[in-house]
Amino acid sequence: MSTPIDPRAARLRERLRGALVAAAATPMTRTGEVDLDLAESYYRRLIASGADALAVLAHTGRGPFLTPDVRAGLITRARRTGVPVIAGVGTPEDARTAAGLGADGVLVFPTEGDRVALHAEVWAAAGVPMIAFDLYTRPCPPAVLREILAHPGVAGLKTALLSDAMGCQETIALTHEAGRLAITGEDRMFGPSLLWGAQAALVGLAAASVETTAAVLRAFAGEDLRDFEKASARLDRLAAATFTAPMEGYVQRMLWLAAEEGLIPESHACDPYGPALPDGERATVIAAASG
Description:
about 45% helix, single chain, eight-stranded parallel barrel, alpha/beta
């Protein structure tokens, strides 16, 4: 049974229905320096490649590691593109700042504390529509998810459970039950999550190779099952090469792809916050993207 939803959250829910939201990386140097002009150019190229909206400062964008001024600058530059912008936040203060800069919504990071209370605090502080987040490193119990989804300020829920197919299906079902937007963040179960009922996508795979990701959504919306099968298989090959152990290395892998595709310069294709990756892995990632 659906639960009441605030008109602001309902509007965002409908704006994102069927959309590909690129979980954008943050281009930076080896020492963590961010060029805001370059970031805006990258955001615009993601949109030109097929992204319908942007998620900035999320895990892929290393939002929790960035300084407040850089975070604010990235939201501002994303807003200039004209598409819906979702900002990753971990505190009510982050949400208030994002709302003040014009973010259309916030992606609320999972925490170890009271998640229901956090969503209530974010809403009270900012009044901006929220996307809840069920993440594999901190999976949320179904009873807690139900409470979060019942909040009128929640527009949708992103599931990113990585390899838990049953958990993903249950989360999507709970989201439908509450009348919220079921958003897949399942880079390794992208096609299946659409078959299970996901209605939009917010994925790190779209930090580069946007056309490959968008092709799956287009094929799913069409009537040719063979097209969907082919598009999904291609995306699965890319995901297998990028979202693999060490999992935190996926940000660097996507930055490599972004540089290879000309979305960012080589000088800013670095993730200083991720693990070191083996020699030769970049070639494997590039080969998977072109296969």
